[in-house]
Amino acid sequence: MRLIRLLTSAGILIGVALTSATTSLAGAREGSAAVSVSVSLSGFETPSQHWQDPCEGNDPYTGYESKEAPIPVYRDEATEIAVRVGLPADFERNQTLIDTYGPDVFRTFVSTHTRFTRYCYDPLTRDVDPGTFEGFWVPLVTQETVVAALAQRLEDYLRPPRVSWPSVDREFGWLYVKAPMDFRVDDVSPISLTASVTNITGSVTATVSATPSSVLLEPGEPGGSATTCPMAAATAAYVVSTPGLCSYRYNNSSAVSPSGTFNALASVAWTIVTSDPGFGVATIRTWSSFDVAVAEAQAVVTG
Fold first, then answer.
1. DSSP state of 49
2. What is the per-residue pLDDT across 161-215, written as a single tens digit (0 to 9) for each?
3. Dihedral sign computed on CA atoms, order 61, 67, 71, 76
4. 14 Cβ partners below 8 Å, 6+ apart?
5. Which of 88, 180, 197, 241 is the most exposed place for a label (fewest CB within 10 A)?
6. pLDDT at residue 121 above 90?
7. Is 116 among the domain residues?
8. Closest Cα partner for 16 from 32, 48, 49, 39?
C-alpha cells in the first residue's frame, strides 16, 4: 500500500519512460545486481513565452528579446526525500514505531526557477517599449533540480519487503516459541535511476541510487522487541544448524492474540546517494505488514 510521497520541486510534473538493464552499483553487496533505469522527466521545458514574438507590427518596436533578468532572481523551494511504501492499514496504531525508526528525511532548499524577461525594442535606436515588459519563470536545469525530481521516482521502484521464514514448520505453517526463528527478505535489489534534461538554462545528467542496507523486524508479540540485521544476512542462505543474524525468538504463542496470529512489521532501510553533493546521503524505509502464527511445542515423555 502506498501511503505518502514527500518531495516537492516547484510543482514539477513527472513522466517516465523505462528501460531496464542489469549492472553493478557502487556500495552494493558483492555479487548483488542493481537495476539501472533511464527515466524521462517532464516539467523542465522552456516556457512558450520565450519563443513567442509579440513584437510583430509594433512599430517601431519590432525587435524582440527574451533573456534572464539582468540581476538573476531565483525561486527557491524546499525539497525532501522520504519514501514510506507499504505501510500497514493500521498506520495510526504503528505511528510511534514508524516515528522511532524512520525514515530519516533529508531536507534542503533548492533554487528551482530563474526569472526571465521579454520585451520589444526599436532595432535602430535600441529604445525599449516599456509597455511590453513581461516576466516569467523558467525551470532551472541543475544537478539539484534534476536530482530532486528524479528522487521522487524512487517510490515507483522500491517495494515493501517480502518476508519469509525458512525455519517455519513445513507441515503446519507456524513458528515455535523459545527457539531462534530465521527470517529473510526478497525484492530488495539496489536500483539506480538516471535522467538527462536540457532547456535554455542548461543541460544535466543526474543519478539517484538506492541500496538496501538493513532490515528491521517488529515481531508483534506482547513485550516483543524490534530486531535489526544487515541486508547481507537477510538475503543469506539458510543454515538449519546455525541461526543467522536475522532471527527472532518468540516468547509467546500467538494463541494469546484474539486473532490467533501476531501482526508483525518489517522495514528495509535504503541508503540514497545522488550525483548532487548537496543532497548528501539519505536513508529512507519501505514497510510491510504480515501475520505470524507461533505455536508452543509440547513434548510427551513415557517410560
1. H
2. 899 999 899 999 999 999 999 999 987 889 999 999 999 999 999 999 999 999 9
3. positive
4. 41, 42, 43, 149, 152, 153
5. 241
6. yes
7. yes
8. 39
Establish if 120 belongs to a structural domain: yes
Query: Is residue 258 a part of any domain in this protein?
Result: yes
As given in the structure block, the three cell numbers for residue 22 are: 542489469
Under a CB-based contact definition with an 8 Å cutoff, are residues 150 and 191 in contact?
no
Number of structural domains in the chain = 1
Q: Is the pLDDT of residue 13 over 70?
A: no
Q: Where are the alpha helices (DSSP H) in the chain?
A: 48-51, 95-101, 143-151, 231-234
Nearby residues of 31 by Cβ (< 8 Å), 6 or more positions away = none
pTM given for the model? 0.78
The greatest distance separating any two alpha carbons of the chain, rounded to the nearest whole angstrom, comes to: 116
At position 17, the amino acid (one-letter code) is A
Instruction: Compute CA distances 171 → 167, 168, 175, 253, whole Å.
Output: 12, 9, 11, 17
Provide the domain limits for residue 18. 2-295
C-alpha span between 205 and 194 (Å, rounded):
7
* Strand intervals (E) in the chain: 2-6, 20-23, 34-38, 63-68, 74-85, 106-121, 134-139, 162-164, 175-176, 180-182, 184-186, 191-199, 202-218, 227-230, 247-249, 262-274, 281-292, 294-295
148 found inside a domain:
yes
